[in-house]
């Protein structure tokens, strides 16, 4: 009989593909160990859902899918005592990839996705528009947050950020799947 972790690893390999998926999932699970979502489910379900959204709207972007699995690790892992320090965490993330350049690329995206608490959220999201991969993950993160545990205040914060992006680009940012954007807009309307 297979354990839940074995089933999860096989599922992640299917969603994100690639030989590194199991190692990446293991790093994400350790980073979020003991952490729960507002809804009461284990936190690891959130990065998995974000990876699924990336897979749905940006098929073929395997590296981005795996980065989605790690998108909250820099914010959470040390704070929850799952890694001793940033150096240990960074080494775990980069060594999860068999290609050093892929590990460094993902780490760069993760640093962009990590923001200071209290920072202006719209400015933060606008700063991600310089890196389409980071922006795609942030928009997928927003979509899952509003789909799984909607909060009116959060929806308004997201709406303000999306309006800033639309203003900057006179519409949907380039490289963002219009269906992804539309679904995010629709869910914001239902929550706010």
What is the structure about, briefly put?
The protein has 192 residues and is mainly alpha-helical. The chain has one domain (4-191): Hypothetical protein af1432. The protein has helices at residues 4-16, 21-31, 45-57, 62-69, 73-76, 86-95, 100-113, 121-128, 132-148, 152-169, 178-191.
Please provide a written account of the structure.
- The chain has 192 residues and is mostly helical.
- The protein has one domain (4-191): Hypothetical protein af1432, CATH 1.10.3210.
- The protein contains 11 helices and no strands.
- Helix 1 packs across helix 2 (21-31).
- The model has no long low-confidence stretch (mean pLDDT 90).
Largest sheet: none
Tell me the helix content.
Answer: 55-70%
In total, how many beta strands? 0
Low-pLDDT regions:
none
- Count of the separate structural domains: 1
Number of helices: 11
SSE string, helix = H, strand = E?
Answer: HHHHHHHHHHH
Terminal CA distance? 45 Å
Roughly how many Å is the radius of gyration? 16 Å
| Fold-level CATH name | Hypothetical protein af1432
Q: Any guess at the CATH architecture?
A: Orthogonal Bundle
CATH top level label: Mainly Alpha
As a percent range, the share of strand residues is: under 5%
Question: In terms of structural class, how would the helical and strand content be classed?
Answer: mainly alpha
* Overall average residue pLDDT: 90
- The CATH superfamily is known as Hypothetical protein af1432
Shape: globular
SSE map:
Layout: H1 4-16, H2 21-31, H3 45-57, H4 62-69, H5 73-76, H6 86-95, H7 100-113, H8 121-128, H9 132-148, H10 152-169, H11 178-191
Helix pairs in contact: 1-2, 3-4, 3-9, 4-7, 4-9, 6-7, 7-9, 8-10, 9-11, 10-11
